[in-house]
Amino acid sequence: MIAIVDYGMGNLRSVEKGFLKVGVDARIVTDAASIDNAKGVVLPGVGAFIDCIKNLTDMKLTEAIIGAIEKGKPYLGICLGLQVLFTESEEFGVCRGLNVFKGKVVKFPKGDLKVPHMGWNTLDIQKRPPIFDGIEDKSYFYFVHSFYVVPEDNGIIAGTTDYGVNFTSMVWKDNVFAMQFHPEKSQELGLKILKGFGEFVKKA
Amino acid sequence: MLAKRIIPCLDVKDGRVVKGVSFVNLRDAGDPVENAKFYDEQGADELVFLDITASHEKRNIIIDVVMRTAEEVFMPLTVGGGIRTLDDIRELLKSGCDKVSVNTSAVKDPFFVSRAAERFGSQCIVVAIDAKRVTKEMVYTSDEPWMDEPSLKLVQLERRLSRDGLRWAISTHGGRKMKRIDAVNWAKKMEELGAGEIMLTSMDRDGTKDGYDIELTRTIAEAVSIPVIASGGVGNLEHLYEGLVYGKADAALAASIFHYREYTIKEAKEYLKARGVNVRLKS
């Protein structure tokens, strides 16, 4: 079973239904024990970084999530689930993240481009993760965010996207896959990623 | 590069699509879910349900529609119409919609927008602005006070109108009530209060098939730094082009040209692409 972590941030139903659609057993969970028992962990979520960390801490989920990653369990981070993996965010001063990866979460610079970055944009695959079967380079995915991650280690960058700046839109290291875009909102290409992750969990 | 979005809009009343088309190849032309799937297959970028259910008691029907849609269709879904409380928003988001659009509630209490944005995040709060060109007659016959400038006298107003030329005021209740609120200022205020997107409808053009009000669209798109969805008046594909290119909108919304199958989403996107607009074509 794959645990979709519900910590009160955003629309989890689409993630759950997306997995269901591609025949992967994934359930919404709200406690650490369920994360410990799961074969894979999905951390979705949209909204503010600070609320995300606060909710995860209040619900005593941070250790379970970091523990699952350290044990080598497959992890899929979506949007905030990508951002919280990093050291800190500049949203509302400085806010500490889970520090699984060294790096920062920064805001899109003010300029001609609209913020939030909202809509369909292309993903330039830098390093093809094993959950990306059947997905072509430069495919469109759905984004909605105002902040993006800047990893210290370029080696984890799996995908980039151009929106005024060329930002990291996907990271991959070993068992950790995390993306800024929303596979659960990206029609059939997004569902392919969920299916790919489901298969990766099965083999892990 | 970020693609310009094409967004079909479905009017839903008591859980059924209004103006159901019988010649379409759907099992049930009045079923919002069937229509959503139809647009999904054509590569729509998002979907908007405008709930025009009149009675408040029947409002939970839209929740069921959203739940069933979210099981079948995996693209961003916005619901607008009749949203009054934070609980209304929470219920919709929980059932699987991604954004809600508010109009009347924002006009009644602009801070409703900031409370909603704080609670759920700006990204899911769309403010719908129904704008109408101001004429002197309209201003004189309106009995609403200027909400943003209560002290403004009619004489001053008249001077300002002649000085500024064309302006737009906003309306609520589906265009039935006019407010003496400048649409451009209102859009800026909504951005300040935390709106993540503006859905801008020209009430002069809505239903006319004469095309978007380009001047209105461009003025507001340039005045705010959040995305603007152009709406109201699309009668052909050229109009979509005009709204996105001349109107500088980030997304183009249309209802009847897609609903009555005058054009498919695919045809619209191929047309725009051929004219150099960056759109997402389904692979």
- Coarse shape of chain A: globular
Biggest sheet of chain A, strands in spatial order?
Answer: 2-1-3-4-13-12-11-8-9
The count of β-strands of chain B is: 11
Strand sequence of the main sheet of chain B, in spatial order? 1-3-4-5-6-9-10-11
| Uncertain parts of chain A | none
Q: Structural class, judged by helices and strands of chain B?
A: alpha/beta
Question: What is the share of helical residues of chain A?
Answer: 25-40%
Strand content of chain B: 15-25%
Strand proportion of chain A = 25-35%
Number of helices of chain A: 6
- Rg over CA atoms of chain A: 15 Å
Main sheet attributes: strand count, strand direction, barrel closure of chain B:
8 strands, parallel, barrel
The best one-word shape of chain B is: globular
Structural class by SSE content of chain A: alpha/beta
Mean pLDDT of chain B: 86
Report on the architecture of this protein.
The complex is a heterodimer of chains A (204) and B (283). Chain A is 27% helix and 34% strand. Chain A starts with a strand and ends with a helix. Chain A is α/β, with parallel strands linked by helices. Chain A is globular. In chain A, the strands form 2 sheets. In chain A, strands 2-1-3-4-13-12-11-8-9 form a 9-stranded mixed sheet, with helices on both faces. Chain A has a 4-stranded mixed sheet with strand order 6-5-7-10, covered by helices on one side. Chain A has 6 helices and 13 strands. Chain B is an alpha/beta fold and 283 residues long. Chain B is 38% helix and 20% strand. Chain B is built from 12 helices and 11 strands. In chain B, α1 runs parallel beside α2. The longest helix of chain B has 13 residues. Chain B is globular. In chain B, 51% of the residues are buried. About 5% of the residues of chain B have low confidence. Classes of the chains: A alpha/beta (204), B alpha/beta (283).
Topology diagram in text:
The complex is a heterodimer of chains A (204) and B (283).
Chain A: E1 2-5, H1 13-21, E2 26-29, H2 32-37, E3 40-43, H3 49-58, H4 62-70, E4 75-78, H5 80-83, E5 86-89, E6 95-96, E7 101-107, E8 117-125, E9 139-145, E10 147-151, E11 157-163, E12 165-173, E13 176-179, H6 187-203
Parallel strand pairs in A: 1-2, 1-3, 3-4, 4-13, 5-7
Antiparallel strand pairs in A: 5-6, 7-10, 8-9, 8-11, 11-12, 12-13
Chain B: E1 5-13, E2 16-17, H1 32-41, E3 47-51, H2 60-72, E4 77-80, H3 86-95, E5 99-102, H4 104-108, H5 111-120, E6 125-133, H6 136-141, H7 154-164, E7 168-172, E8 177-182, H8 183-192, E9 197-202, H9 214-223, E10 228-231, H10 237-245, E11 251-254, H11 256-259, H12 265-274
Parallel strand pairs in B: 1-3, 1-11, 3-4, 4-5, 5-6, 6-9, 9-10, 10-11
Antiparallel strand pairs in B: 1-2, 6-7, 7-8
